Each structure stands twice: as C-alpha cells, then as structure tokens.
Amino acid sequence: MSKPVTWLDRRALWGLGVALGVVLALSGWFYDSVSGDLADERRQREATLVANALGASLSGADAEAAAERIGRWKAALPRLDSALVVAGRELVASTRPEDAAPRPLQREEKPLFDLATVLRSAGETNVGEGGVRKKTVQIDDRGDGVVTVTVPYVVDGQFEGIVQARVRDAGPGRVSPGGGWALGLGLLAGALVVGFFLRVNPQRRFDIARGVAIFALLALAIGFQQQRLGQMAEAAAASDLDISKFQAAAAAAYSRTGAAPLAPGAASPWDTDAYGRPLNRIAGDGSVLPRAAAAGPDPLTRFLERSFWGINLVGVALLLFFLQGYATRTATALRDHADAYAYVAPAMIGMLVLVFFPFFYGIGLAFTDTTLFNESAPFRERWIGFDNFVQILGDFNIVTQSAEGTVVNYQNFYWTLMMTVIWTVTNVTVGVTFGFILAMALNTEGLRGKWLYRILLILPWAIPNYITALVWRGMFHPQFGVINQVLQMFGLAPVRWFDGVVSAFMTGLITNGWLSFPFMMVVILGALQSIPRDMYEAAEVEGATKWQQLRSITLPLLRPTLVPAIMLSVVWTFNMFNIIFLVSGGEPGGANEILITKAYKIAFEQYQYAYAAAYSTVIFIILLVYGYFQTRMTRATESY
Prior knowledge:
The protein is an alpha+beta fold. The protein has a domain at 412-606: MetI-like fold (Orthogonal Bundle). 63% of the residues lie in helices and 8% in strands. The strands form two sheets. The chain has a six-stranded antiparallel beta sheet, sandwiched between helices. Helix 5 packs antiparallel against helix 7 (299-323), helix 16 crosses helix 18 (546-574) and helix 20 packs antiparallel against helix 21. The chain starts with 9 loop residues before the first helix and ends in a 6-residue tail after the last helix.
C-alpha cells in the first residue's frame, strides 16, 4: 500500500520558517530604512526650498531691507523657526529675539563666518571649473525635527555672506496599508490547489514538498512586500503633495516681499539639491510637474522593489540550504566538533571582520558612483549598476590620431592591462630563471662556503621591499644616481631612466628581479635537495648526459613544487604595488602603471572611490580566472 503524499516534511517546514523569518525581517528593515530616507528627503527639501526662496528675496537688499523681509517671512511661514543674514564679520539681520542686529559677530559665532568662507570658496570653484563639484547649499539635519539650511547671500551679483534658515518639521503623514497580502495568499492558495489535483509518485513526495515550500515562501514574501511597496508609493505621493503645498506657501511669502512672482508652469528654482541644481519636480506655483509624474515610479519605490527581489533570492537560497540537507550537516558538524570550532572561532571572526567584510563592501561599492563629494549620500542615490564596469571594459580608445601623429592613451584600461601582463611575465621569468640557476649552483656537491653564499643571496629578500625600492630609485637618479656615475666612468652618456617608456620599465624590472630571485632560489633549492641521489647515479650508469638528467629527472620532480611557487609569484607580481609606485611612479605619463597602482591613484588622487573599487574587482576576477585555469591545467593542487 502506497504512503500518502506529504506536502511539507519536517526539513521543509524548518527551512520555510527560517527563510520566511529572514525575508520578512530584511524586507521590514529595508522598508523602515527607505521610509526614513523619504522623511529625511521631504524635511530637507522643504527647508532647502525656504532657504533658497529667502535668499532670492534678499538679493540686492541692504541691511535694513533684509531685516524687514526676513521679518515678513517669519510672520508668513509659522514653520520658519528663525532666519539670519551674515555679511563678512557682521550679523546683518536676524529673527531671533536675542540677536540685536546689525552687530559684529561674537567669538562663539565664528562657525558662521567659517561657513560663509566655505560657501564662497565652493561657488568660486564651481564657476572657475565651469561645472558643479562642490556643495553651495549646506544642510544640517540632526534628526531633532529642525533642519538648518545655509545658502549664499548675493548682492548685485556678488557674494556677500550667507542666509541661514531653521525650519521645523510638520511631522509624518499617514499611509494606508496596501493590498499585497491578497496577491500573496492567492498565489499560495493556487499552489496548494494545483498540488492537490496532481497525482504524485510517493517516492517523489519530497520534490513536491520542496516545490510547495519555495512557492509558499515566495507567495508570502511577495504579499508582504507588495503591501510595503503600496505604502511606499502612497508615502512618496504624499511627500510630493506636502512639498508642493509648502512651495505654494513659500511663493506667497516671497510675493509679499515685493519680488516678482515665479512663472506658474516653470520648475521652481528653490527646490534644489545640495549643489544648487534644481530637481525639476515642483513648479513655481506649487503644482507637481507633469514630466516628474510621467517619469515612472518614485526612485525610492524602485530601489525598494529591487531590494525586495534581492532579498527573495537570499530567502530561496536559505530555504534550499535546509531542503538540500546542508543545514542538518552543518548542525551535526557543529555539535560533534564543538571544541574545534570554539578554538578557531576567534580567527574566523577576525577573517570575517578584517577580510570578508571589506572584500564584499568593495564589490558593492563598485556598483555605485561614490566619490569624495557624495560619499555621505544614501546608498540608493549612488547606485548605478554596471556602469563603472561598462566604462572600464568598453573603452577601446588606446591609440588616437592627432595633428602631432599617433598618440597612445596611457590612461586606457587595456593599455594598463597589457603593461601589467608584460610586467608579470617578464618579472616571473627573471625570478624563476635566476632562482633556478643559483639553486642548481648551490646544490653542487663539495661547494665550499655554501653557507655564506646562501646568506648573501637571501639578503635581498630579507630587506623590506619598500626600502629596497627607495634605494634602487636613488641609484637610478639621472644626475646623482650611482648607475649613471658608473656609465660616465666608462665614457657613456647618462640615461634619463624615467623619461622613456622602456627605460622606466627596466628600472622596475631590475628592482623587482633583485627582490624576487631569492624566493625562487630557496623554494627550488629545497626541492632539489629532496630528490634522491640514487636516481642521478642510476642515470649516469645508463649513460645519460647532464642535460638528459635535467630534462628527465630534475624538472619532472621539481614540478609539484615549482608550479605552485610560480602561481604565487604571478599573483604577487601582478599586484606588486610598492616597486611601481616607489621606483618609477608609473612614469612617463602613466605609461608604466599596472592595474593596482592605477586603482590606487584613481581612489586617492582622483577620489573616485567607486571607479577604483570596480577596477579592483576586475583585478580580482582576472586573477581568479587565471588561478582556476592554471590549477586545472597543471593540477597544481593534486598530489603526485
């Protein structure tokens, strides 16, 4: 008699419970985070709007007129907590009762003077560069319900000081719940009904349990998430409505100061970001612009939706972890070897914090446009997907034609990759060749002073490589370097080592060759001494020459040691930062940069952190692919 079909067995129930709990917890956390961002955005946009409008109404006003106008603003907008105007070292006007204006700034008010200096410098920098690189609007939101926004105070087109407005928050709005639960429960009911009418072989009941568990997870998760997305869409619409009402109130207060009203259909110049760029979402009369509504869902809602799909993938992976039995095996291993895991736990935690977290954070950073100037912006605003990788890998402009002839773009990724490959191949070849020759020499029987030779030859490896790099850089100095001094002693002209692509490359090759041969020598020497002498004696009896012994005995027996050493040397040399950075510096014009030094300069000289992270991710992928295929082809990890 066949057993009845079990829709959800114990393993599936455990996995469904844990995975669903994780998915709902992560979804709720993301929703709360994005909701907080939406509230912050609304609060800051309203405060920025008021500050910009106040600054525009004061344009060209003297001290007396400025005091009168900010008084009108205070009376017209109850949420305007206070406003003040600073010009140079003087407080021109203020709505705070304790501030008797105009008067000189007090010692404790020096931050206002410093802030004016910062905004002046930012404006001059943007004008000088013909772009927008520095913030000209300072927003201070400490989460206490009051946002302080500082904008430039301009008189007759000239920067005179700052206008600072403190705006109180109106409080959160209400959001009605969405209807996503109905969709999720409907999907779950559909799965159960379809499963009920299926005729299932009892031997495959766990497959059905697995399918039902996955479908149940997705149905319940999607139901919860759709509800949250509905709430977020309503909250975003309510936020835009609140801002539009505030814009209308600000426009009315602006007109009371005698200024010309804004054009009704044009975008409000007051609704800007921290760089003074209009957001083009609200019109001057307070209406929501049609093109903003036609642009699709709110960016916050889109970000939340994409995040939910990622969370669902994590939930399915976690559920499969239980369904496939890995959770049971993991729990058994932890229970049976609890003492061993307790001993290695500190090291595992250290690796997690110091290695894996920075690694995955760097990969995540590669999918953003993070720079020095927007690193404090929310992650969702910096997310750009694969754009950095497309820009790096899609630029094939290595050689260009100009009036001066053919010009090589040394900043191109593929040029740098080519130089990195050449650098790696030549350095590994030099290190292995000289290391092998010296190891063979030191392995000679009866060699006198062998211990002394070993000490002398291992010294380059014992000295820190950055000290060696600085010493060799001094030796290659075009005027005072010892190498050019020796050349001149023999009647040769001195060489300007760092002015040519080939000569600068040779400086790094010689320096790194000096550093790399001792490692290879020690590894190969140890392997040579492990080869039984009887094999060479038998080969000599058979009449084998030295070359035949080398080819048939030495090299095959060296392979298990030599191949992993070469792989390690390739990885080291591929990322040999110190030699390139300290000896040639990538000169001339970046022609001798390798990928790792290029990534460093992009990050810490150009301050493009995300682009440098993408560069580093590409380096990791290249080395990962190399290590995989090298291991497969040479079977380096297999015993012989």
